[in-house]
Structure formats: C-alpha cells, structure tokens
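name: query_chain
kind: protein
chains: 1
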Amino acid sequence: MPRLEGNCWSCSCPTGVKHKTLSSAAVWASKAGEMMTIITSVLSSAYGSLHSIHATNLLRRGLVLFTVGVILALVLNLLQIQRNVTLFPEEVIATLFSSAWWVPPCCGTAAAVVGLLYPCIDSRLGEPHKFKREWASVMRCIAVFVGINHASAKLDFANNVQLSLTLAALSLGLWWTFDRSRSGFGLGITIAFLATLITQFLVYNGVYQYTSPDFLYIRSWLPCIFFSGGVTVGNIGRQLAMVSSSVRLCYILTQWLPNPVLQSCRSRRLRS
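structure:
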C-alpha cells in the first residue's frame, strides 16, 4: 500500500501572494479607521460650533426683541396716558415718558418671549412662514400696529362696543395682511387671552386702572391691542430667525464645506 506521507497535498499558491494580500487589507483597514476618526472629529467640532452659534443668535434675537418691546411700550403707553385712558398712581409715575418703571421691562420681556416663540412653533408644526418675508413688510406691520393703538386712544365713538368692533376688524386685517398663518392666529388669540387675564389681575389689585371700564376692570378693546401686538412681534421674531438661519448657513458653507469640496473636485479633475 502506498503511504499517505508520500501523497501529501501542497498549496499551489505562493506564500508571497498571501502576505501581500494580508498587508494590503491591513493598510486599507487602517486608512478606513483614520478616515472615520477624522470624520467623527470634524462632525463633533462642527456640532459644537453650530451649537454655540445657535445660542449666540438666540441671545442676540432676544436682546433685539427686548429693545423693540421696551421702545413700543414707552411710545404706546405715552399715548394712552396722554388721553387719560390709563391711569397710574402718582407715586409710581417715573420721569421717563410719564410711565411706571416696571412697564418697559415687562413689555420687553414679553416681546422677547413671543418673538422667540413664533419661529419655534412654526418649526415644530412644520409650517415655515413664507408670506411677505422682508423687512419692509415688517416695518409696515409695526406702523399699522402703532396706528391701531393710536386709534384706540384718539377715536371717539358713541360707546366702547363700536370702538371694540372697529379695533377687532383692524386687528384681523393686520393679521390677514402681514401673517395669514394658522399658527400666528392661534398664538395671537392665546397671547390676547393671557395678557387680558394678567391685566385684569393687575387692575384688580390696584396697580393701575382704566377710565370707563366696560369689560370687568378694563376696556373691551384691549384684547384687540394684545392680539395685534402679538402678531407684530411675531413677525419681527420670524424675520430675525430667518436672518439668523441665513447667517448660520453662510458660516457652515465658508468654514466647513469649501476645503473638502474643493479638494475632491481638484482630485477628480486631475484624475480625468
């Protein structure tokens, strides 16, 4: 019988090919690991920078909205006081625009909250506001809001019901002209309801008062002013959010995209 030792099988492949294949696979694996490490570090640094940019833009928008709210409170409250619509006790009247000291900060804080809330609700609902997104429309909206507030102090009607209906129509016209969004209408109604409750509480506790109240302790047209003010501040907040998003996009394009994109394009051109 032939022995098995004499008929041992031997691989026909040379050993050099095996070592070459293993070494090339190890090189490709190390390169892939390096690329994954670079991509991870770039994405983490980009996320950190975007987070810091978002926080900075949020703070800037809040400060701008707070300033706008303070200015509008000083101007509009002056109109109400001059026409004796709003009466403050003499001991709380300050020298600045004959307004109580706490009115401008409170209105500025409310404007910052409302202006930041509008674009947030739009993004949550997935309905970005695209109607008349330019600063000229925002300035016209502010002018119409000031006009509505001025009309509430200057116009003389036979009774407050006629004035309230007129201001309600003007407020709805402001929303239809400069907003036309369901989220804007819903937030405007909510803001008017909450602001009216807070005002009722303040007047009830004697902080200030209204002349000729016909809706519990306040004027019946005051919710219309709050509604139009919420729509106006919301449009300002939306416009500021759009500017901030465009600035953030420009930062991403200038900081992160150009170098890899240009390098890949150049390498492809050289290969072709």
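note: The first strand starts at residue 86 and ends at 87.
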